[in-house]
Amino acid sequence: DIVMTQSPDSLAVSLGERATINCKSSQSVLYSSNNKHSLAWFQQKPGQPPKLLFYWASTRESGVPDRFSGSGSGTDFTLTISRLQAEDVAVYYCQQYYDVPLTFGQGTKLEIK
Amino acid sequence: EVQLVESGGGLVQPGGSLRLSCAASGFTFSSYYMHWVRQAPGKGPVWVSRISADGSRTTYADSVKGRFTISRDNAKNTLFLQMNSLRAEDTAVYHCVCYGLGIIYWGQGTLVTVSS
């Protein structure tokens, strides 16, 4: 199984500041047919299902604000929120869909400092 | 608009059975692999099972192998999960999910509670 490891487990950032969440996969998730990484980022708020933010590691889902960005290659990936807003408080998960079992990171809880 | 609407959850006693359904619309259901992913209260999502587009191939997490059966009816655009021998640790919100090239769709989920 591909193990996804996020860091940090929790993060407190001031409003308007940058938040960075890291995700590492235990092996490559590069899909050779299109040379893209099978890596997604989700945002989850209490009582809601996970909301897709990015797929192929850096392709922003429609409607996601451009203060959110996804990047990375190889086995290291990053979700960045450039200017934190109050509504960004949530738990964030990375997930690989390269192979089954689909696996998720343990989650990063983002709070306001 | 893409919609995945799960149903069939509820309260069931340990050892009992439940059948979940997921009605799909807004995309070509029969072209895509479909999955079930569950999320226990306060925990992260965990993959449960996958079925191929034509329904001929299925894969399961070790934790549910031999107890759960995934199936689909492409004529009715519906995904199923038959859950038998349910345990307390199966308590979770169950989501049906579609992963394809450049698409990821999640349903809102249905809550399954296994308790006496």
List the topology elements:
The complex is a heterodimer of chains A (113) and B (116).
Chain A: E1 4-7, E2 10-13, E3 19-25, E4 30-31, E5 36-37, E6 39-44, E7 51-55, E8 59-60, E9 68-73, E10 76-81, E11 90-96, E12 103-104, E13 108-112
Parallel strand pairs in A: 2-13
Antiparallel strand pairs in A: 1-3, 3-10, 4-5, 6-7, 6-11, 7-8, 9-10, 11-12, 11-13
Chain B: E1 3-7, E2 10-12, E3 18-25, E4 34-39, E5 45-51, E6 58-60, E7 68-73, E8 78-83, E9 92-100, E10 103-106, E11 110-114
Parallel strand pairs in B: 2-11
Antiparallel strand pairs in B: 1-3, 3-8, 4-5, 4-9, 5-6, 7-8, 9-10, 9-11
Low-pLDDT parts of chain A are none
The number of helical segments of chain A is 0
Percent helix of chain A, as a range, is under 10%
Uncertain ranges of chain B = none
Distance between the termini of chain B: 39 Å
- What string gives the helices and strands of chain A in order? EEEEEEEEEEEEE
Sheet having the most strands of chain A: 7 strands, mixed
Envelope shape of chain B: globular
Radius of gyration of chain B: 13 Å
Give the fraction of residues assigned to helices of chain B: under 10%
Please write the string of helix (H) and strand (E) elements of chain B.
Answer: EEEEEEEEEEE
State the end-to-end distance of chain A.
Answer: 36 Å
Q: Report strand % of chain A.
A: over 45%
Could you tell me the strand content of chain B as a percent range?
Answer: over 45%
| Average predicted confidence as pLDDT of chain A | 97
Fold and architecture overview:
The complex is a heterodimer of chains A (113) and B (116). Chain A has 113 residues and is mainly β. Helices cover 0% and strands 51% of the residues of chain A. Chain A has no helices and 13 strands. In chain A, the strands form three sheets. In chain A, strands 2, 6, 7, 8, 11, 12 and 13 form a seven-stranded mixed β-sheet that branches. A four-stranded antiparallel β-sheet of chain A has the order 1-3-10-9, with no helix packed on it. In chain A, a hairpin with a 6-residue loop joins strand 6 and strand 7 (51-55). Chain B is mostly beta strands. Chain B is built from no helices and eleven strands. In chain B, strands 2, 4, 5, 6, 9, 10 and 11 form a seven-stranded mixed β-sheet that branches. In chain B, strands 1-3-8-7 form a four-stranded antiparallel β-sheet, with no helix packed on it. In chain B, a hairpin with a 6-residue loop joins strand 5 (45-51) and strand 6.
